[in-house]
């Protein structure tokens, strides 16, 4: 075998073109491409195969390396994100350096985005030619091995975050759970019953919340947010910012005597937990089962903050415990963790955006989340379903797909709305005896026991009208409509337009990414879809991983999801984090930059532009130096350096120039 | 700022008040309009029901002429605006229609490129002129005047290029900039009856009555429209649509209200053509006019 590492020996290149079934072969003339590649300089062998990533495909490469003494390999197939590790493995097993490989993405970049076979084939040839030119210059590189810290950070304390934190903590590893609200529980804590089993949400959730609060392996930080994330897989440094709740958490025992003693005898401010349907005091516990059981003060409402002239009856009531601290300030804490699970959840569609449904105009138009509070035994009406004037509705309309499957707002199906609408229909009918009308586009009830639940509702006499509602309005055309809200919709099964007068309208609002999802994604360096949902590494095979190693996603931040799916995903993310921690070491890609000291003038330009603060200035030598552990290989410094004295492994100037020239050298 | 201007038949006939006020408003705002030379029927309403392809060919001729002028084409009438847009969409989306239209243009020796940008006056006012520039030119603010903005169907459906399809607000914003108060008007995109008042009078009249009732119920003192057919339906049949209470509400083109605010004389903005005299209302609201 010629010395693969000797730059003086002419390279012996093998080119492998994949059909990817018909994914590539339907649009690119694969045999012609392989034949073309065979004629390129230094190419010793070029082959095509139906699935290059399969075992026989890889064996083809390994065999050729051994038999033809190949020193460089080009694989023209899918995205390197998909199979670069696969083919590198093949090279290593055949005894040559993993980085003597160059992949050409003729699937995502060519066959999937073009229709003309002739032109697509020509483009694929250009790309292969460029890769052949470049791969000759590839140098042998070694991966770095770094230690993995066993601690895990979970961001977001909804059901997904709670489940992930408990799973990891139960395995004996330490978890930091950071939640921005004053209590964990997320959306699930708002619900009364869960579909399709109608088990009580609180009964199944609160034990898990309490377990989080008391678990020796969980550090729970509520009313706190992640402010900064640095580092890399296995070694993340995370800054957590604690918002002041004006209560010393360690001292508060949750007795709520302060709340009782507050100078305001009645609540006067919109209660966030009840979505404004009830009032709370300036000092309050978010809800009776809140975890942690610690009160907090709203400085916007508290007299002491506004005028410093309050009698401070709360402080008096707290007495010797001295848990109230009006001078508390935000504080920041830094932690080291090995991996991160992002489970930041969703928000619901702002119903007023669909002006035709009168939310915010007609008082008795509610969102589904508000109705969840109304039907909840611990909600503002103690579970009684009443209108704003206190009367019980006799006719209720539930409008599906509000802010879902709508080209004017959100195109996606929010997945949970059909089922929760059925649940609300059942609860409303059960508790009020009202006639309930569901207006749907399609009933989507796939899931264990879901379709059966739909059947049950049909038997219970709930009405179903297939048609997207045109509007909710208060203009009557018949005496029976006076004083009612009229839902107008085309009944597409009956073939005419219906007007249904009701007392209460429930808008089944869809799920949306959190409003700051884009900031959060930048913080954790993860990608998101066009709509803002966090992007998994692979939709089928890596559903909780992200493109950043050591950062996982779980729950509805990745896309609309019900409770069972969120919990399943949280368990998967926990398993990934635990597997990483148990591996103890991880290998890092060697794409880092390095300074050619002889050429460096010490201008420090690179120091300011490095987004990862990975470059330091060495005083003794007056030269810049890259910390290879911190370097992410973004290439910014190499491109910026005025004297061209920063090089990046696998992206050296000469390698890139060769690739460009190969691309431009028309055959 | 200069645009090609396609008036269509209505603005030269039943909708003269629209053209008069529109031209006056854009003159006052310093926007030049150049009428498309040798324009023909836009192809709307009757044609589109009777022979779609003829309709596209007619629209395409106007579009081709406008494309040669090299400016965006302003089409104020909702029907023209829709059919011009629709023709561009259909020619693009259905190659077989494109071929026939190309052939028709070929026969009259016109270029096949019909890709001129078709603009509604509201679009131009909001996005090119801008509300700030408009506000700066207001001399007689419409303070306190309660207006129901009625959009009808064709401006936003099916093609909503510059406003929301189901809850358009462009006219609201433009009239608010002139000081008017926009009332809640949930039926603002409901059907005005189109030409049903002529063919199925009872159905047409019911639709008209609904729009007038809601305007009245929500406290509107005037109705602003963007379409000559809507304006005609709502204005001309008020007596006939009246039941217990009598309708008596001015129905104006939005450009007429703009003209009023910009200090254009009433009879240069088509107010003399209204069935209902606007002056008592202006006097009551203490709105100055020229």
Task: Report what the structure shows.
The complex is a heterodimer of chains A (667) and B (290). Chain A has 667 residues and is an alpha/beta fold. Among the domains of chain A are: 13-142, 3-Layer(aba) Sandwich (Rossmann fold), CATH 3.40.50; 257-321, no CATH class; 347-512, FAD/NAD(P)-binding domain (3-Layer(bba) Sandwich), CATH 3.50.50; 593-648, Alpha-Beta Plaits (2-Layer Sandwich). Chain A contains 18 helices and 34 strands. In chain A, the strands form twelve sheets. Chain A has a five-stranded parallel sheet with strand order 10-7-6-18-29, with helices on one face. In chain A, strands 20-27-21-22-23 form a five-stranded parallel sheet. Chain A has a four-stranded parallel sheet with strand order 2-1-3-4, sandwiched between helices. In chain A, helix 12 links the parallel strand 21 (395-402) and strand 22 (435-440). The longest helix of chain A is centred in the last third of the chain and has 21 residues, at 563-583. Chain A is globular and about 90 Å long. The mean pLDDT of chain A is 95. Chain B is of the alpha/beta class and 290 residues long. Chain B folds into two domains: 2-119, Glutathione S-transferase Yfyf (Class Pi), Chain A, domain 2; 130-284, 3-Layer(aba) Sandwich (Rossmann fold). Chain B contains 15 helices and eight strands. Chain B has helices at 8-12, 16-28, 46-50, 52-69, 78-93, 95-107, 121-129, 131-136, 170-177, 196-199, 201-217, 228-236, 238-241, 254-261, 279-284, and strands at 2-5, 32-35, 73-74, 118-119, 146-150, 181-182, 222-225, 251-253. In chain B, strands 2-1-3-4 form a four-stranded parallel sheet, with helices on both faces. A four-stranded parallel sheet of chain B has the order 6-5-7-8, with helices on both faces. In chain B, strand 5 (146-150), helix 9 and strand 6 (181-182) form a beta-alpha-beta unit. The longest helix of chain B is centred in the first third of the chain and has 18 residues, at 52-69. Chain B is globular. The A-B interface holds A 354-356, 358, 361, 408, 471, 473-475, 477 and B 160, 164-167, 184, 186-187, 210, 213-214, 217.
């Amino acid at each position: 075998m010629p010395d693969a590492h000797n730059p003086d020996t002419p390279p012996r290149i093998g080119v492998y073109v994949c059909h990817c079934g018909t994914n590539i072969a339907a649009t690119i003339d694969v045999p012609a491409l392989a034949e073309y590649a065979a004629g390129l300089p230094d190419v010793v062998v070029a082959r095509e195969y139906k699935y290059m990533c399969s075992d026989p495909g890889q064996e083809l490469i390994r065999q050729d390396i051994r038999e033809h003494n190949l020193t460089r390999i080009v694989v023209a197939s899918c995205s390197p994100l998909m199979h670069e590790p696969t083919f590198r493995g093949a090279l290593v097993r055949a005894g040559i350096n993993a980085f003597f490989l160059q992949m050409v993405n003729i699937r995502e970049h060519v066959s999937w985005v073009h229709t003309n076979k002739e032109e697509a084939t020509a483009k694929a040839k250009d790309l292969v030619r460029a890769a052949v030119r470049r791969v000759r210059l590839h140098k042998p590189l070694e991966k770095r091995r770094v230690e993995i810290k066993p601690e895990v950070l979970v961001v977001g304390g909804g059901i997904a975050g709670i489940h992930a934190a408990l799973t990891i903590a139960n395995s004996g590893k330490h978890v930091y759970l950071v939640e921005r609200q004053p209590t964990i529980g997320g959306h699930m804590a708002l619900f009364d019953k869960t579909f399709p089993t109608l088990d009580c949400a609180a009964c199944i959730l609160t034990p898990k919340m309490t377990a989080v609060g008391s678990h020796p392996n969980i550090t729970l930080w509520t009313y706190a947010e992640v402010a900064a994330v640095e580092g890399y897989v296995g070694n993340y440094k995370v800054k957590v910012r604690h918002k002041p709740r004006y209560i010393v958490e360690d001292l508060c025992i949750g007795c709520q005597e302060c709340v009782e003693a507050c100078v305001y005898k009645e609540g006067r401010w919109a209660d966030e937990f009840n979505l404004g349907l009830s009032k709370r005091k300036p000092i309050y516990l978010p809800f009776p089962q809140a975890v942690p059981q610690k009160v907090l003060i709203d400085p916007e409402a508290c007299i002491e903050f506004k005028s410093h002239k309050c009698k401070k009856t709360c402080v008096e009531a707290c007495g010797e415990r001295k848990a109230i601290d009006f001078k508390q300030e935000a504080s920041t804490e830094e932690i080291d963790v090995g991996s991160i699970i992002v489970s930041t959840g969703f928000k619901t569609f702002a119903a007023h955006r669909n002006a035709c449904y009168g939310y915010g105009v007609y008082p008795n138009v509610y969102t589904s989340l508000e109705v969840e509070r109304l039907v909840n035994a611990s909600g503002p009406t103690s579970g009684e379903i009443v209108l704003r004037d206190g009367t019980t509705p006799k006719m209720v309309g539930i409008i599906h797909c509000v802010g879902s499957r709508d080209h004017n707002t959100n195109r996606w199906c929010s997945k949970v709305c059909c089922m929760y609408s059925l649940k609300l229909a059942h609860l409303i009918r059960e508790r009020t005896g009202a006639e309930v009308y569901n207006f749907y586009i399609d009933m989507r009830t796939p899931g264990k026991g879901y379709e059966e639940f739909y059947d049950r509702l049909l038997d219970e006499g709930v009405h179903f009208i297939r048609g997207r509602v045109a509007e909710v309005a208060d203009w009557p055309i018949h005496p029976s409509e006076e004083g009612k809200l009229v839902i107008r919709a085309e009944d597409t099964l009956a073939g005419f337009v219906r007007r249904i007068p009701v007392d209460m309208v429930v808008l089944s609002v869809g799920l949306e990414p959190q409003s700051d999802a884009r900031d959060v994604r930048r913080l954790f360096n993860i990608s998101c879809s066009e709509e803002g949902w966090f992007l998994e590494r692979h939709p089928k095979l890596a559903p909780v991983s992200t493109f950043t190693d050591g950062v996982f996603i779980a729950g509805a931040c990745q896309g609309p999801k019900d409770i069972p799916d969120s919990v399943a995903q949280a368990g998967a993310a926990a398993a990934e984090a635990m597997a990483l921690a148990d591996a103890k070491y991880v290998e890092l890609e060697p794409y880092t930059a390095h300074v050619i000291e002889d050429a460096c003038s010490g201008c420090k330009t690179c120091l300011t532009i490095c987004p990862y603060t990975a470059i330091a200035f060495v005083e003794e030598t007056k030269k810049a130096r890259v910390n290879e552990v911190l370097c992410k290989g973004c290439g910014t410094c190499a491109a910026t350096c005025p004297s061209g004295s920063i090089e990046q492994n696998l992206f050296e100037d000469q390698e890139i120039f060769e690739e460009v020239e190969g691309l431009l050298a028309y055959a | 700022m200069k645009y090609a201007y396609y008036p269509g038949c209505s603005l030269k006939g039943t909708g003269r008040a629209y053209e008069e006020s529109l031209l006056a408003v854009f003159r006052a705002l310093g926007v030049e309009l150049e009428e498309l030379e040798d324009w023909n029927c836009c192809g709307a309403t009757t044609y589109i029901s009777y022979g779609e392809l003829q309709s596209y060919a007619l629209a395409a001729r106007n579009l081709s002429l406008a494309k040669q002028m090299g400016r965006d084409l302003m089409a104020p009438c909702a029907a023209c605006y829709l059919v011009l847009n629709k023709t561009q969409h259909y020619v693009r989306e259905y190659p077989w229609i494109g071929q026939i239209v190309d052939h028709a243009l070929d026969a009259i020796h016109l270029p096949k490129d019909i890709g001129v940008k078709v603009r509604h006056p509201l679009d131009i006012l909001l996005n090119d002129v801008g509300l700030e520039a408009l506000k700066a030119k207001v001399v007689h603010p419409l303070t306190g005047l309660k207006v129901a903005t009625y959009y009808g169907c064709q401006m936003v459906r099916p093609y909503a290029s510059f406003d929301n399809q189901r809850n358009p607000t462009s006219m609201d914003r433009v009239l608010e900039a002139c000081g008017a108060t926009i009332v809640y008007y949930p039926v603002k995109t409901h059907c005005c009856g189109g030409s049903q008042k002529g063919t199925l009078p009872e159905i047409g009249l019911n639709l008209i009555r609904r729009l007038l009732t809601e305007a009245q119920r929500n406290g509107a003192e005037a109705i602003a429209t963007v379409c000559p057919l809507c304006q005609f339906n709502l204005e001309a049949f008020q007596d006939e649509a009246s039941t217990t209470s009598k309708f008596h509400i001015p129905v104006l083109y939005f450009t007429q209200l703009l003209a009023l605010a910009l200090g254009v004389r009433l009879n240069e903005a088509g107010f003399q053509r209204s069935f209902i005299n606007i002056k008592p209302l202006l006097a009551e609201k203490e709105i100055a006019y020229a």
